[in-house]
Design brief:
This is DUF4185 domain-containing protein. The protein is mainly β. It contains four helices and 27 strands. Strand 12 and strand 13 form a beta hairpin.
């Protein structure tokens, strides 16, 4: 099995609801009376393709002026740097050339020239992108390097703290020779200097003892950094919420309990709701909050949905369909929609990922494995 195929296998498995089961968590907290959240529920007015961002990554991915840079990826988190540049954080990434017919060569491990990494960055300045990877131009490596060939890191959300970039990662590990012999192992946060993003300054463990993958999303609000996680049982997937006082994820965590209070014990973390994806977001919207996620209540759903709350910790109600992804169908599926509230658009900018179950599709058509962007408006 190629490195590409074995790396993509966990993603496909997760989308197909085949993830390894995690230890059970507490029951969901009791829901308040509907009127308590109704005042913060908004109506989705519409959604349209964000031509600037979708076109930016399309043009950059097709540009062969460098052959050690980005041609496609998933993950797609963003963070505004102190310099005003936009940091784009990716998980599985293709680097290399794009052929005139819109294809790419196979990966190096299959005899081609395309480099495949499990994580990377791109930096946007004045409408221009540049790729950041570890290693060298001749031998690129992940910006968050694995400890060995049986482990790898996929990126979560990122934040700024004390002048450093903090990027969350989930470490996965292989434990056997089979395509599905892999599992989530732990959560970490890597700290990067904004002027030297090709290698972490330090790496620190995050809470990992109770089967919750932190952080699907981050939100700074009211003196806290809220950390959103997913307990992935395949089907269903449960939302969990933690928070840290201040800006850095290295502070003391507390976890939302079933009774709506907070506990320093991760074992008390409650299942807040089901139906979220492995990546989702909670963003401030007017005087309330909006949860954006792919709908995982059905397998391979093309629907991106929004729910609303008066609190960053939920409960989230008033679920509405935001957008139905047109790429979904045949071998192609979409997943892991989330918002980018600090990125300028004609509304709330939302990205989603596109992939194929057929490995050779990624070589035949480079446009498949790239993020799409939409602008969502609310009444």
């Amino acid at each position: 099995m190629s490195r590409l195929r074995s790396a993509l296998a966990p993603l496909v498995a997760a989308v197909l609801a085949l993830s390894v089961a995690c230890p059970p968590a507490s029951a969901a907290p009791p829901q308040p009376p509907p009127a308590a959240a109704d005042g913060c529920v908004r109506t989705v007015a519409g959604a349209a393709v964000d031509a600037r961002l979708t076109g930016l990554f399309t043009a950059y991915g097709n540009d062969n002026s460098r052959l050690d840079d980005w041609t496609g990826a998933d993950g797609t988190y963003s963070l505004r740097l102190p310099s005003g540049r936009e940091l784009w954080v990716f998980s599985d990434t293709f680097l290399g050339q794009v052929d005139p017919d819109g294809s790419r060569p196979p990966v190096v491990e299959e005899g081609g020239t395309t480099v495949f990494l499990n994580n990377s960055f791109a930096v946007e300045r004045d409408g221009r992108l540049s790729t950041i990877h570890g290693g060298t131009e001749q031998r690129p490596a992940a910006v968050m390097p694995p400890r060995d060939e049986d482990h790898w890191f996929w990126a979560g959300d990122a934040t700024l703290a004390g002048g450093l970039v903090e990027v969350t990662y989930q470490e996965y590990e292989r434990f056997g020779p089979g395509a599905w012999d892999w599992r989530w192992h732990r959560n970490v946060v890597a700290r990067f200097a904004p002027g030297r993003l090709d290698r972490p300054v330090s790496v620190h463990d995050l809470p990992s003892g109770h089967g919750v993958s932190w952080a699907s999303g981050l939100l700074k609000d009211g003196g806290f950094t809220y950390v959103y996680g997913v307990e992935d049982l395949g089907s269903p997937k449960y939302m969990h919420v933690a928070r840290v006082k201040g800006q850095s994820l290295l502070g003391d965590w507390e976890f939302l309990k079933a009774d709506g209070t907070w506990s320093p014990d991760e074992g008390d973390s409650a299942r807040i709701m089901s139906g979220v994806a492995n990546e989702y977001s909670v963003s401030r919207l007017g005087r309330g909050y909006v949860l954006i996620t792919h709908d995982t209540t059905e397998v391979l759903s093309p629907r991106i949905v929004a729910s609303f709350s008066c609190s960053p910790a939920g409960p989230f109600t008033g679920r509405q369909v935001v957008y139905t992804t047109p790429e979904t169908g045949g071998n192609v599926f979409t997943y892991n929609a989330h918002a980018h509230p600090d990125v300028a658009g004609q509304g709330l900018v939302v990205s989603y990922n596109v992939n194929s179950f057929v490995n050779t599709d990624h070589y035949r058509d480079v446009s498949i494995y790239r993020p799409r962007f939409i602008d969502v408006s609310f009444e």
